[in-house]
DNA sequence: GGTGTAATTTAAAACGTTGTAAATTTCCGA
DNA sequence: TCGGAAATTTACAACGTTTTAAATTACACC
């Protein structure tokens, strides 16, 4: 077919955009090219001449062509989907949402969609992971709250499935992760309490089975030992305990002899609960005791007197996880895809 | 092929589960049936004999067959996906997450997946809706914070695309929605303030462009007029204002003459900000002034003295939206799919 | 034992894309 | 002017499912 004939064919076919949405076929008819060529041109394959490449791109843009994800997925086996495991414990203070926004930012300009796989109410998180691997529901996975020998991580490693965790593990095989330096947080927070003159510090730790329990404890103990102050650790409760339980515990403990006068609170709600529990017994923040808390939202800046805080930037963590996961999917080595985010002092001005 | 031959064929083929995951073909080979028959049997089509139906189901379960979503989607045009538009304003107190958990519960036993379409940082939410409609990215849509003549709703109605909003609109064409009775909330909250003896009430309203601004205002004004107390409305700020701004406003206003002594707070963070602003000026909650706040989490029960609250059950709203959307997708009439959830007094015991 | 009808099962064609292998065109140097 | 290699384009076959229409089998009745 000569260039002139082609051009005629184009005029003829481009009368009305058909009922359904445009496909490669539509463009093929409009340009007089073969479907394969159009596909190639759009994919910027090397063997397509620059002129047709341009022409195809122009037509595609004009009619608002977007490839059918289902067909692509069927053919290539790639889903263009990244799945986030939503943990029920993340709901209180928008942890999930913060991370999600960061993730969204990372995936913004890519063709990836974000799908949320909530905790199966009955089964464990491992089932969800298994389901996703087995049925190829996503190209990559993101989740948080890792355990030292997290079964989800083990499963993913065994299957060579791309993922990024929020939190480290202790597997010898490296994997991509983003973590917050909770050692630094606890160390710094506790040091600050001591600097304020507090002489018996305490901390509300994450559940023992989670990896960051260790780091947190270690940071706390390091500060304690360096300063030689006394301390105690409440092992009847943890950060996942309902706020009421934390409040009740603090209230009870502060009524007993020799109560702590410095609290390291790695959670906003637990900080609030602590303040409430203390004030129930007539203790005043900054006067009789102090708190240094982890801050992930603007919540704590709303209460009086101001609680001293150390910031953890969750949207940044989300964005980092997104970027690392994309690189992991692209084939980069897992051991090069790790990231430890330091605590930031003071809430960044927006 | 005789039954015996079939049975032999089955034995022969079931030696090893092939490399890839099982497909209809796998089952067809194992049972000696045609692919079509297997598809029908799994779909419980009427013309399949009970015996083969059972046999196919058994084999499918045995080898853990799950239909390929991409192929189904390509063939049928249905995506089996429900998309949630995530609004940036929803991040503070896990609104998004709460709703999401409810939604997840509603979709639990269905084949639907939940995909999150975050606000496109640049474009408006309308672009996202348009994108989803045009490219058939989902079978149904869920979003919140409706305006009286919400352009998203208009677009969806024009295209006959199934959706459920959180919040009402004023279009004459009915559409599915779940809403919280904010009139009842504001009316009840304000009445309580008045019952406590407060004589000048005020309210922090949602942004004027959102539908529930009207309901909230109406409820507030009704209580005010019935009791004949005085009131004022801060129109320099709204519920979306940063907490610091609310706090500063309250602080400034309470230092001026004739300040309000009763606050209706339709948001948890704004309630906190109000308390802080007031206490900055030496006003004590329950003594010099009162607050009745909307409660969507256990946050407010953590501060002292207890703020009186009226509950809004967001997970329940999410679940309701999910169920309504499924029915809408199934073809039910939109006008039958509306739901107004009443305020509940006191936090339900879990 | 045939015949018609109902009950089951089946082959073949799509859905829109990409990969393989082959066909066509273009271009260069002899 | 002609081979032949390089450049460009193409046809066809998948991917796994559902749908349409047709084929086969079973069943009842005369």
What does this structure look like?
2 copies of one chain form a homodimer. With 350 residues, chain A is an alpha/beta fold. In chain A, 44% of the residues lie in helices and 15% in strands. Chain A contains 13 helices and 11 strands. The first copy, chain A, has helices at 3-13, 24-31, 35-42, 50-63, 69-76, 95-107, 125-134, 151-159, 182-195, 211-227, 243-255, 268-280, 314-329; strands at residues 81-86, 113-118, 140-144, 163-166, 177-180, 200-203, 230-233, 262-265, 290-295, 308-311, 338-341. In chain A, strand 1 (81-86), helix 6 and strand 2 (113-118) form a beta-alpha-beta unit. In chain A, helix 2 crosses helix 3 (35-42), helix 7 packs parallel to helix 8 (151-159) and helix 11 (243-255) packs parallel to helix 12. The N and C termini of chain A lie far apart (60 Å). Residues 1-19 and 346-350 of chain A have low confidence and may be disordered. The interface between A and B is large, with 57 and 57 residues. The structure holds a DNA duplex (30 and 30 nucleotides).
């Amino acid at each position: 077919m000569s260039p002139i004939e082609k051009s005629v064919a184009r005029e003829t076919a481009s009368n009305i955009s058909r009922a359904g949405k445009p496909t490669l076929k539509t463009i093929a008819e409009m340009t007089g090219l073969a479907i394969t060529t159009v596909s190639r041109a759009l994919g910027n394959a090397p063997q397509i001449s620059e002129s047709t490449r341009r022409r195809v791109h122009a037509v595609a843009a004009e009619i608002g062509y977007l490839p059918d994800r289902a067909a692509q997925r069927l053919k290539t086996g790639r889903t263009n989907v990244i799945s986030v495991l939503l943990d029920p414990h993340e709901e209180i203070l928008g942890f999930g949402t913060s991370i999600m926004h960061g993730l969204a930012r990372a995936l913004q300009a890519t063709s990836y969609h974000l799908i949320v796989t909530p905790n199966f109410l009955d089964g464990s998180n491992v089932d969800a992971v298994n389901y996703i691997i087995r049925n190829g529901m996503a190209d990559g996975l993101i989740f948080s709250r890792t355990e030292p020998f997290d079964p989800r991580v083990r499963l993913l490693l065994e299957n060579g499935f791309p993922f990024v965790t929020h939190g480290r593990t202790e597997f010898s095989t490296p994997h991509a992760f983003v973590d917050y330096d909770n050692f630094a947080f606890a160390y710094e927070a506790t040091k600050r309490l001591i600097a304020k003159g507090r002489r018996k510090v305490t901390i509300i730790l994450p559940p023992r089975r989670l990896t960051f329990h260790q780091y947190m404890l270690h940071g706390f103990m390091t500060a304690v030992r360096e300063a030689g102050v006394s301390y105690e650790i409440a092992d009847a409760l943890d950060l996942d305990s309902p706020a009421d339980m934390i409040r009740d515990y603090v209230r009870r403990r502060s009524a007993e002899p020799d109560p702590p006068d410095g609290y390291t609170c790695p959670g906003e709600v637990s900080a609030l609960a602590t303040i409430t529990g203390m004030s129930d017994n007539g203790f005043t923040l900054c006067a009789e005791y102090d708190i240094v808390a982890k801050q992930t939202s603007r919540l704590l800046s709303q209460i009086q007197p101001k609680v001293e805080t150390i910031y953890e930037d969750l949207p940044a963590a989300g964005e980092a996880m997104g970027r690392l996961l994309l690189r992991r999917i692209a084939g980069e080595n897992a051991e090069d895809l790790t990231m430890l985010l330091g605590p930031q002092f003071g809430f960044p001005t927006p």
